[in-house]
Write a structure and sequence with these properties.
Helices cover 49% and strands 14% of the residues. It is α/β, with parallel strands linked by helices. α6 (176-193) runs parallel beside α8. It is rod-shaped and about 175 Å long. It starts with a strand and ends with a strand. The structure holds adenosine-5'-triphosphate (ATP) and magnesium ion. Residues 29, 31-37, 61, 239, 288-289, 304, 306, 324, 327, 329, 333 line the site of adenosine-5'-triphosphate (ATP).
């Protein structure tokens, strides 16, 4: 919101702060004298919303601003149409005999859009009965054709949305005539719908010229008149003031005059506004940023403090201790070119970063694959190690068992050797009776039937040898039908008063081998059972018991 007193800058030599009142203001001075910097400082420090226009490529001059879309809405009434024609003609319409009447007739009853207006002019030209009239409307149609399609070429917003600070509409790609129509349209909108705002008119000599009507000039007068009541002000930013219409200039209470080169322009300005104070030489040698501020009846020579500057620095400049050239200003002041360079630079960096990012992603994928492979390899190695460890343990157990068995075997060998020394083995048993097949085996199955017949010699035994003794026990049916052990056989021997014989189990094994007995293990102990009952063996003549004397 606006404040009544706004710091403009510091007086040269005294460094006294100079304040201005927010009102209609003219800032003038040759190019690069610091006009835009001055009005930005005023806007910034009054904390008001301002609308400015960028009318030339690469030029805006603001340090801090936001771009808003251009607004345009055609005005209404014959005066507006006349200003349109003026825009296209660039001269006063009243010199065209009968033209104002024609304009009034075209505008009569209002028009929805400029296209509708143009079509109406064309229709009137076609319908005109008299040649004079037909000429007028044809000319009017042609004038309108110079501006209407140009306006239709651009995209315009139908409302204005602004924030505190400088809001810039970029009109740099429009013809001056179109710019004028847009600025006028904004002034009209501001007059009707906004309050407490500033509209900055750039290059006022173009848009509020002396001696000719333009759309801006048409509306500026009423904007200025109404403005003070609702806090809407105009800032006129112009390199010279000689060509500006005097009416709006007269409404400006603040005059801020910067350096001028042109002596005639200086003279005219001083004559008009400053009543010959200061001298033309003084105006022509003003440094950048230093202005003569005519505020009411007082004139001050002021160093204007830019919005981005510290007070101490500004005071030092006002006192001549520092020069503007020595002050480092924020980069953003370099405007479009800088932004363009910055943009290109950032774009390049962005592309570089993006390509690096792509590489990184690729590498990441590759490294992920490696990681996966390494992980699975590690797992495999781990599994192998575990299995290896287990195998090692098994091997150890196997070694131990082998060793145990080896020892046992050694024990048996020693035992066998000891026994052999005590009891010499009978020759017939030593001569492997296992090679003889004294049995007859008949096997019958389901189809196919295989019948094997083995010729067996009848087994003749006596109680003179161990086999004979075991056979006798068997033949007598002493082995029964249940499982028996070697010691059962030994017990039977006792009944016959035969001595124990350590080879008994070997003989039993022979009988198993021949099919008379069968064998199984109860733990480590061998058990035997009669397979061919002794009476059957006798019947089959497989067993013959002889009594010897
Ligand atoms: N008071 C100041 N202190 C320091 N630097 C300034 C000051 N005024 C203007 N400048 C610098 O001088 C240069 C021109 O300023 P600026 O754009 O305000 O001039 P201008 O009068 O608006 O020019 P143009 O007529 O070309 O628009 C800019 O670089 C600006 O930063
Ligand atoms: Mg400027």
């Amino acid at each position: 919101m606006s404040e009544s007193k706004i710091l403009l800058g510091f007086e040269i030599s005294s460094s006294q702060p100079i304040y201005i009142r927010l009102t209609h203001t003219v800032v003038t001075g040759m190019t690069q004298s610091g006009k835009t910097t001055t009005l930005e400082a005023i806007i910034h420090r009054s904390r008001i919303r301002a609308i400015a226009f960028k009318i030339k490529r690469g030029e805006a001059g603001f340090h801090n601003y936001r771009i808003i879309p251009p607004y345009f809405k055609a005005g209404s009434g014959w005066q507006y149409v006349e200003s349109l024609v003026n825009v296209s003609l660039g001269e006063k319409v009243k010199y065209e005999p009968g033209m104002r009447g024609a304009i009034m007739r075209v505008a009569q009853g209002g028009f929805k859009s400029l296209r509708v207006l143009l079509e109406k002019a064309e229709r009137l030209a076609n319908d005109a009965k008299r040649e004079f009239q037909r000429d007028l409307y044809t000319k009017l149609t042609e004038y309108l054709k110079l501006v209407v399609p140009e306006l239709e070429r651009h995209n315009f917003s139908d409302k204005i949305e602004i924030l505190e600070g400088v809001n810039v509409m970029d009109l740099s790609d429009m013809k001056v005539e179109t710019q004028s129509l847009v600025i006028a349209s904004v002034l009209e909108y501001a007059s009707k719908k906004l309050d407490n705002i500033i509209v900055v008119i750039p290059e006022a000599w173009e848009h509020i010229p002396q001696g000719r009507m333009t759309p801006v000039k048409l509306i500026a007068a009423s904007y200025i008149r109404k403005g003070a009541a609702i806090g809407n002000y105009l800032i006129i930013d112009s390199q010279d003031i000689a060509g500006i219409d005097k009416e709006p200039l007269r409404q400006c209470d603040n005059w801020i005059l910067g350096r001028q080169k042109d002596k005639r322009e200086v003279d005219r300005t001083l004559e008009e506004i400053f009543k010959n104070r200061p001298s033309p030489e003084e105006v022509m040698t003003l440094p950048r940023g230093v202005f003569y501020a005519c505020l009411g009846n007082e004139v001050y020579k002021v160093y204007v403090m830019p919005s981005w500057m510290e007070e101490e620095t500004a005071k030092a400049i006002a006192l001549g201790k520092l020069t503007v050239e020595n002050v480092e200003k924020p980069k953003v002041m370099e405007e479009e070119q800088m932004w363009k360079e910055k943009y290109e630079e950032l774009k390049g960096e962005k592309e570089k970063i993006e390509s690096e990012l792509r590489n990184l992603k690729r590498l990441n994928n590759v490294s992920q694959n490696y990681k996966d492979t390494i992980k699975s390899l590690t797992e495999t190695v781990k599994r192998f190690e575990e299995e290896n460890k287990k195998l090692g343990e098994d091997l150890k157990t196997a070694d131990e068992e082998t060793e145990k068995l080896r020892k046992e075997l050694q024990g048996f060998r020693e035992f066998k050797d000891a026994l052999a020394k005590i009891i010499p083995l009978p020759a017939e048993i030593a001569a492997s009776p296992r090679s003889v097949v004294p049995s007859e085996v008949s096997v019958t199955t389901e189809q196919p039937t295989i019948s094997v017949q083995v010729q067996r010699k009848p087994l003749s035994v006596t109680d003179k040898d161990l086999l004979g003794k075991v056979a006798i026990v068997y033949a007598d049916g002493e082995l029964g039908e249940e499982w028996f052990t070697v010691s059962n056989v030994t017990k039977s021997f006792e009944k016959h008063a035969w001595p124990r014989d350590p080879r008994t189990s070997a003989v039993l094994d022979d009988l198993v081998h021949w099919g008379f007995l069968e064998k199984r293990y109860s733990g480590k102990r061998p058990d035997y059972k009669v397979k061919i009952k002794p009476e059957d063996a006798k019947i089959k003549r497989l067993l013959k018991v002889e009594e010897t004397t």
